[in-house]
Structures are given as C-alpha cells and as structure tokens.
C-alpha cells in the first residue's frame, strides 16, 4: 500500500514537472499561487482581528460607562458632604513645609564632577594626528 502511494506521488510530481516545462511560465504560476495562499491567510487574520476589535470596543464602552458612573457618584457624594470633598481635594490646605522642595546650588555640574567622568564634558581630540 505504501509503495503504491509513493509511486502515485512520484507520478504526480513528474506530471507537474512536465506541465511546468511545457508551459515555460511555471515559476510565475507557483509564485502567483503562493501569493494567493498568503493573501488568504492574511484575510483570515484580518477578519479575526476585526472581530476581536468589535468585542474590545463593546467592553471598553461598558468600562467607560462604569467609570463614569462611579465618578459621578463620587461627585454627588462630595456635594452632599462638603467637608469630605475639601479634605479629599486639599481645599483647606494653603501650603506647608512638606510641600517645599529644597534645591542647593553647587551640585555636581557646578563643581566640575561631570567633567572627569567617562561620559562628561572632557575635551579629548578624536582622530587627530599623533
């Protein structure tokens, strides 16, 4: 049985070679067939991506509506209890020492620390005569 299958396969290959040799444009046929095959695969992938996009869009619309309703609920609660919203948003807080950022002058750039480092601003000649 296996021998008959192999003989039949060789016979089909021989017929295919004959057709290609007789026509003179076998390379074009195989190239076109290959392009058609890849185009079909690409279309299947595109359809799958588009279908996934629709479901993702529906999910995002639901998520967006959920977030918006939660936000509106928080705003409504803030209007009912003004002390809660002021403390949450920092409304009564004018300023404190905790908010201050201290920056000292004379950092590494001013003291020249970067000029001696590997990636600094050292002045080396590149590619000159020795």
Architecture blueprint of SSEs:
Elements: H1 2-23, H2 26-80, H3 82-89, H4 108-111
Structural commentary:
The termini are far apart. This protein is mostly helical and 130 residues long. It has helices spanning 2-23, 26-80, 82-89, 108-111.
Give the overall shape, derived from the CA principal axes.
Answer: elongated
Provide the β-strand percentage band: under 5%
Weakly predicted, low-confidence segments: none
- Radius of gyration from the alpha-carbon trace, in angstroms: 37 Å
Can you write the helix and strand succession as a string?
Answer: HHHH
Distance between the termini: 81 Å
Number of strands: 0
Average pLDDT, all residues: 77
Largest sheet: none
Percent helix range: 55-70%
Tell me the structural class.
mainly alpha
Number of helices: 4
Concise summary:
The chain has 130 residues and is an all-alpha fold. The protein has four helices and no strands.
